[in-house]
Structure formats: C-alpha cells, structure tokens
Amino acid sequence: MDYPALLLLSEVYGTLKGGISTIYRRLATILKEREPNIPVFSAVLDATEEDKEDAKFDRVDLLLPKVESGDERTDPSLHWLTFDHRVKYPHLPSKVRSILGHTDGTGRAACRIKQDLCSEATVVLFIDDIPEDTEQYKGDEKAMGIGKKENSILEDAQKADVVFSIGDRIFDHFKSQFRAIPANKRPQHIKFLPRPSRMFEDANAEYSDAETMVVLIICRVTGAEKLKGLDLAIEALSIVAGKMRVKLRVRGVDKEDLQTTKAILDHCKSANLQITFLPYGTQKDICKGMLQSHLVLMPSRAEPFGLVGLEAIAAGVPVLVSDKSGLADVINKFAPRYHNCIVETDIAGDEKRNADHWARSIEKVLRHCEAEFETAANLKKELLSSRYWEESERQFIDVCTVGGLMTTVRKTPVNPKEAAQMKRVSTTAF
C-alpha cells in the first residue's frame, strides 16, 4: 500500500542548531514508532554527516537541495524551499498527507509547496516566539519591526490548517492575536509542550568537587546578548567571582562574533572571572558541556519557552532560570516543589538590583553545589515522571495520521460526520 507521507521543512535536521529542529526530530521519531508505515521526509538546507546518520537511524528520508555544477549560488537560503522547490528539491514526495513548518521560518515554504504540489495536504505550523516580548531586546531596528513580524506570523497561520504554539505563554499570546483572523479562516490552535531530547534524558550528571566552579550559558551571542541576559549574567558572576573561584563558559559564538564578544567582556567587572567563548556546536557538544558544568544559567529577559533550560534539567544539572520564561511555567505547574530554581528577573527595570539578585542565587547554588546536584536529580525525576508532554504528542500524531483527522483540520467541515470529528479535535486542544 502506498501511504501518503509526512514532510518536515527545516533549516537542519536535529543536531546543529537545537531549538525547533530538535523538536521536529522528536516528532519524526515518535511518528515512526507509532505509525511505522507512514514515510517521513525531512527537506533541509544543509546537513552534516552526523545529521545524515541520525536521519538514517530515525528512518527519516533526508532531502538535500540539488545544486547544479557551475552554479555559484551555493549559500543555502529559505527561498530555495519557498520559491525554488521544483528545481532545488525535485525529489519531494508526490503524495503528502501533512507538511510541517514553523512561522518566521519554513511556514511560507510549507504553504507554497501545498499550493504547488499537493493541494490536499494538511499544513501544520509551529510557533516558538513572541516578537512583542523578544524583539525589544534586539536593538532599535528589531523593536521597530515588532508589528510587522507579528503580522507575518498571523499571515502564515491564516494559511495553515493547524498551529501548535510551544508552551503556555506563546499559546495564550496567539490565542488573543488570532482573534484578528476571520473565524472561517482561523487555524485549529493547540498548545504544545515539548519533551527534552533523549540524549539529555539518558545523561546522568555527577557532582565533582573543584576549586573553580564552572557556570555554563548556551545562547546565540550576536544580536541576542541583551535578550538572553548574557550581560546580566556576567555582571552577576563578576560579583560572585569576588568571593569564590568561578569561570563562565558561553556556548553560542560564531566566527563572525569577535566584535560582539569584545563588547560583552566590557560587562565583566572582575579580573577574577574567566570567560571562555565556545561555538554553539551539536546537541552532543551541548550535552557534554552541561555534564562538565556545576550550574547552567538561563537569565533571559524574555524567553517564550526555553528548551536549553529544559534539557539541562533533563540532564540532571543544577539550573537557574528566569521567571520571564515559559519553562518557569512548566516547573511551577508540574514540579512546583522546585520553584527555587526560578529567579526573578528585571526587578523594576533596575539593572544593579537584577545583577545583585542573580549573584545571590548563583552564589547559593555554588556554595552548596553537592546538595544542589541532589536537588537537580530529584527535579529531573519529578518532571520527567509527570510525562507532561504526552497529550501534546498524541494530538500531533492524531493530526498527522490517517485516522479521520485529515478532514477535521479543514476550516469548514463539509458534512455532519466531519463536524462531529471537528468537535472531537477541538475539545482535546489545551
């Protein structure tokens, strides 16, 4: 039997950039586990040898762009997927059940491929950002474009059949925003809570006594240092370094980030604080870095979710996360006894008070680090045992598989049976 396929659209497959691509990989693997006969394809802009091996292991067909000999336009671009898919991706599957993309990324490519190649396919988009919250910390130019970016997400959503918002904060924000979309064009909107990657779940962090304590931050540096609170963390650690030996490792630096890293070092107020900048690396690199650390920080001024913090919890490493993150909501809801790892951030806009507050929290963890590793192990156990992600994954599988939900995601049901199915799907949404 020739089963229609699921087509994933992403810049990379799983390991290189983290974030939404790691969520895609998780969804691809559970789909293959539960519905092994459904072919799963992932069209990407680029892939490492490790990505290719991972896709093969996951039983996912990786589709790379075709580059003609002599064509000097070798820099991968989302335009290849959006406008040039007939030429760059001539091997796209002919029968597609669902196309998966994300807003402000591959969402428009998903809608365009449906329009050009497979009109019966269901377009499923993920939203992983709230521009109104995050763009103001990326400089004046980005802040001025908040409205345009929010409208772009709404335009993508209006063309989609189903939209999954990652976490409570994103879901609540766009539940309100989607009211501007006419009711008959509004997509099915479902909250999605991601599970950490298995790599981190399988890791078991161990405490090791050391004269110098290692603190880790994982974030893109250029253009995001204010948003991710890197400046705040360095000022806080400068205070801590005056009382104990501590070093900071920042993972997320590209070759072009030299000027930015020099500017970041200006925030360091202590000669005792050693700062090392490292490339973002793969998920294996990140996991290894976590296991070599005494504390992982996520001091974001705005963080719609916070997958890196979730993965640190899954690895069993002590973490401190901003209360301005969606991850804080997950901890408060599913492991509320461990709310002490949530740090109040942006206290009345007073940067000195913020730095002092973070410094006290960091020092407390590092001075009682062995006990904090025990607490981290218990937090991991409690959060993972809640299996908070199961309903989200079940809904995703329902949307993408044959079982009758192919018709329910249409914006207007065509008969009473479909109307009943539509009601069943809507009542399972969060």
Q: How is this fold's topology laid out?
A:
Blueprint: E1 5-9, H1 20-34, E2 40-43, H2 49-57, E3 61-63, H3 78-82, H4 85-88, E4 96-102, H5 107-117, E5 122-127, H6 131-134, H7 140-144, H8 146-159, E6 162-166, H9 168-177, E7 188-192, H10 198-201, E8 213-218, H11 230-241, E9 246-251, H12 258-265, E10 274-278, H13 283-291, E11 295-298, H14 307-315, E12 319-322, H15 326-334, E13 342-343, H16 351-367, H17 369-385, H18 390-400, H19 405-408, H20 416-428
Parallel strand pairs: 1-2, 1-4, 2-3, 4-5, 5-6, 6-7, 8-9, 8-11, 9-10, 11-12, 12-13
Helix pairs in contact: 1-18, 11-16
| Gap between N and C termini | 35 Å
Count of spatially separate domains: 2
Q: Unreliable stretches, pLDDT < 50, 5 or more residues?
A: 403-410, 412-430
Major sheet, described briefly? 7 strands, parallel
Rg (CA only) = 22 Å
Question: Tell me, what is the CATH class of the largest domain?
Answer: Alpha Beta
Number of helices: 20
**Alpha-beta content class:** alpha/beta
Give the strand content: 5-15%
* Helicity level: 40-55%
- The number of distinct β-strands equals 13
CATH topology-level name of the largest domain: Rossmann fold
What number is the mean pLDDT?
A: 88
**Inertia-based shape:** globular
**If classified by CATH, what would the architecture of the largest domain be?**
3-Layer(aba) Sandwich
CATH superfamily of the largest domain: Glycogen Phosphorylase B
* Largest sheet: spatial strand order: 3-2-1-4-5-6-7
